Amino acid sequence: MSKPRQLKFGAMVHGVGHGWGEWRHPDAQADASTNFDWYKGQARLAEAAKFDFVFIADSLHIHEKSSPHYLNRFEPLTILSALAATTSKIGLVATVTVSYTEPFQVARQISSLDHISGGRAGWNVVTSWLSGTAENFSKSEHPPHAVRYRIAREHVSAVKGLWDSWEDDAFTHNKQTGEFFDRSKLHALNHAGDFFQVKGPLNIARSRQGQPVLFQAGTSEDGRNFAAEYSDAIFVHAESLEEAQAYYADLKRRAVGFGRNPDDLSILPGIRPIVGRNADEVEQRYQQAVQLVSIEDAIGALGRPFNDHDFSQYPLDAPFPDLGDLGANSQKGGSDRIKQQAREQNLTLRQVALDFSRPRREFVGTPEQVADQIQHWFEHGASDGFIINSLLPDGLKSFTELVIPVLQQRGLQRTDYSGSTLREHFGLAFPVNRHTAVRLSAATKVTDAEQSKVPA
Amino acid sequence: MSKPRQLKFGAMVHGVGHGWGEWRHPDAQADASTNFDWYKGQARLAEAAKFDFVFIADSLHIHEKSSPHYLNRFEPLTILSALAATTSKIGLVATVTVSYTEPFQVARQISSLDHISGGRAGWNVVTSWLSGTAENFSKSEHPPHAVRYRIAREHVSAVKGLWDSWEDDAFTHNKQTGEFFDRSKLHALNHAGDFFQVKGPLNIARSRQGQPVLFQAGTSEDGRNFAAEYSDAIFVHAESLEEAQAYYADLKRRAVGFGRNPDDLSILPGIRPIVGRNADEVEQRYQQAVQLVSIEDAIGALGRPFNDHDFSQYPLDAPFPDLGDLGANSQKGGSDRIKQQAREQNLTLRQVALDFSRPRREFVGTPEQVADQIQHWFEHGASDGFIINSLLPDGLKSFTELVIPVLQQRGLQRTDYSGSTLREHFGLAFPVNRHTAVRLSAATKVTDAEQSKVPA
C-alpha cells in the first residue's frame, strides 16, 4: 500500500504579525519582531509539528505610517542563521529581493545559511514593490514591474550558476599530496548580462542539498511565468477555493509548458486558521481576531499593494475609488485583483478595506473542521499544502497542537521527518551540478563511441 | 585598590587557517571552514576563557590559486548569527566591505545580529584590496586606494546615521491607545553623498548597546586616519615590539587629534601563539608549525597583499624583485612594509616569503613565557590586548586552557564577564542617539533660558 500524498506546511514567523493591530491583543508580545526567544519558540513549535519550513517575509522601505511589523524587525538571513542553530530538521526560507542586491552576495549568504543548517535553506525570490525602496539603495528610480521580472530572471540564473561553482566532489582534501581540491571541478561563471556581470567562482561549496530550494509568490502574468519556470514552491494568497483551484491549475499547466514535472512545483496558499475546542470558543476567538482590525488600520493596510497609497483621503462609504493605473507598477497581481473585485461586486472603500484585512471564515473552526477544510482544498486541486500565517498570538501553537494531530491521524501529515534537508522534505530530487552533468554526458558519449567500435 | 587595566582578547576563528598549509596538519579538520560544529566549539572555547569577542575575517574574490581558507568558507554575518544562538556573552565581530555593499543593507544586517545577540555585534570595516572583486559585483573597475577610503568614510557615516533612526525609547507599545511608537522619535537620514544616497529610516530599532562596536585594520596613512577617527578597536599585524609600540603611539596620537579619548581606541595586534607544557614540547610544536609552511605555499601567500601577484615567476634566491608601484592600490600598508624591509635588509625572495608565512618566535613558549611576553607588550605601550590567530589545530584550546589562567592569576584577564554587551566588555560608554542628544541639548538650553528669567 503506497503512502497517501502528503501535505506540505510552512510557518510564516512574523513577529507582531502581518496586520496593523495584532500587537494590541492582550497576550501579544509587542516586541516580538526583534525578540529572538519568541522566534526560537515559534520555530520549535513548527518543528515539533514536523512542518517543512519556517518562512520569513521581508521589505526594505518604511515610513511613519508603515505597519508596526514593518517598522522594526529582524533581517531574514541573520534571524534564520540563528534559528538554524536552535533547530535540526525544519527548512529555513528567507525572503530576499533581486531588485536591490547583487547575485554574488545573495548566492553566498543563502549558501552559507544552507551549510550552517546542513541543507535546509530556501530562497523566496521577491522583486520589491515599494518605489521608496530605491531611495534607500542609492538608485534614482525603482525599476518598472516588467523590468523587475527581467532583473529577477537574470539574478536568479546568476545565483544558480554561482551555486554550481564547485562540483560536489571537488574538495579532495588529500593531506599527503597537498591537493585541497581538484582544479578541474572548480568553474567560473563569467555571467555578463543586461543587469549583472558576475565572474565567480563563488567562495563556498555546494551544500548537502545541492542547491537551496526556490520560492516565489507571483500572481501577475510575469510573476506566474517566472514562478512556473524557476520555483520549487509558490506562496499564494487565495480568496476562495475556486480562485485557488484556478490558480493551481494555471501554474501547473505553465510548469508543464516549461518542460517541468508539475509535481516538482508546490502551490502553497497562505492561510490564517483560527481554531477553538468547541463552537463557542471558535466564535469567541474569531471575534477577537475581527476586533483587532480597526477600520483605520484596514485603510492603512490596503494602501500597501498600491505603493503605500493613502486611502484615508477618500470617503469610506462611497464606492471604491477609481485609481486608474495605480498599483500596476507596485504589487500588480494583488492590486489588480482588489480593483476587479470592487468593480464587479460594487463595493465601498470600507467593505474592500475590511475584507482585505479581516480574517476569513474558511479556516475557522474546531480542529476537525479546520482539518476537513485543509483536506478538501488539498484533495480538490487547490493546494499542495499551506503556509500558516497566524493571526492570534497563540495561533501557531493552537494550529500545531490541535489541527496537526488530526491531519497526522488521517495520514496526510508526517509524524516524523524522513529526510534532513528541505529538498528531501519536499521530495525533490538532488539537482546534479551543471558541470558534472556535462562531464557525465561527455563520458556517456565516449562510451557510446567506444561501443560503436565494437564489432557486432 | 583599583582593578589593574585589563587585557582585551579576540579569537580569530578561521576554519582551516590563515595559511596555505595548515589543513595538512594530522589533527586539522580539512572541512573546518564550512563546519558549523567546529565554529561552535571555537567560539565556546573563547567564551569559556572570557574573551571579548570572536572575529571573522573575509574576502570576496577567489581563483584557483587562492589559499584553501579563501576558497570555501562561511559568510561572516550568517555564521556569527548562528554563533549568537550558541553563545551568551562573547562579542561577535563581522568583517564586511564598504566597497561592494550598500549602507542600508550593512546597517540592517549588523543591527539584526546585534538584536539577536543582545548587543554583542561588532563591524570590522574593510575596503577590499583585490581588484578581481569588482568582477563579482557588476563593477567595471575596483576603486583606487584613496577612493576606497573616501567610500569608507561616507559608508560608515551613513550606517551610523541609520543606526540612530530610532531613539532608544521610541517604541511605546501602548496597547490601550494604539500608539506603537512615538513619531517624534523616528528620524529619516536623508543622506546624499558622492557615493551613496540613503533616505532611511532603518527598519530596526537601536540595540541594547546603542550601536555596534567598530573595528578597522588600517596601516596606510589613509587607513590610520580612518581607524583613529572612527574605530573602537584596531586589528593590527606587528612584526616586533618596537614596531607595535610605534604604531600604538601613532594611533593614540591621531585619535587625540580627532578629539577622542585615546583609551576609547583599543590597539589589538594579531598574534599566533604556540604553547607547550615544557621546553621540549614548545620546540616540537614550533617545528610542527614551521613544517606546515612550504616554500610554494609561502610564495602563494606573499602574493596576496600585492593583488594576488604571481611571485613564482622570480628566482627564489635572488634579491627580492623590484615591483615598482605594485601593491599600492591593493593592501598598501602591508605591501609597502614588505618592500621596505626587503630593501633595507637586502633579503632574497625566499627569505621574504618564509618570513611572511612562518610563525614568529615572540609568542612561542611555556604558558608562563607566553604570558610574560603578552604582559610585556601590554605594559610597554604596544597593545591593549590581542587577537589570537591560532596556527595549530588545537592552538586556541591550548592558549585558552594554558595561558589564560596565568593571566587571570596575574589579574590581567577577567575571570567572569561583568557586562553583557561587547561595548560593556570594552568599557565603552553607551553612545547617546544623535537625535536624543539634540533634544537633550535643546531642553538644557530651554532650562538655562528659563533659569535666566529667574531673578537672582
Automatic annotation (TrEMBL), chains A, B:
Belongs to the NtaA/SnaA/DszA monooxygenase family. Residues 30-383 form the Luciferase-like domain. InterPro entries: Diverse_substr_monoxygenases, Luciferase-like_dom, Luciferase-like_sf, NTA_MOA. GO terms for molecular function: monooxygenase activity; oxidoreductase activity, acting on paired donors, with incorporation or reduction of molecular oxygen. It comes from Pseudomonas graminis. PANTHER family: ALKANESULFONATE MONOOXYGENASE-RELATED, C2H2 FINGER DOMAIN TRANSCRIPTION FACTOR (EUROFUNG)-RELATED. Its EC number is 1.14.-.-. The keyword Transport does not apply. FMN binds at D58, T95, H145, Y149, S220. The keyword Flavoprotein applies. The lineage of its organism: Bacteria, Pseudomonadati, Pseudomonadota, Gammaproteobacteria, Pseudomonadales. This is Monooxygenase MoxC. Keywords: Flavoprotein, FMN, Monooxygenase, Oxidoreductase. Pfam families: Bac_luciferase.
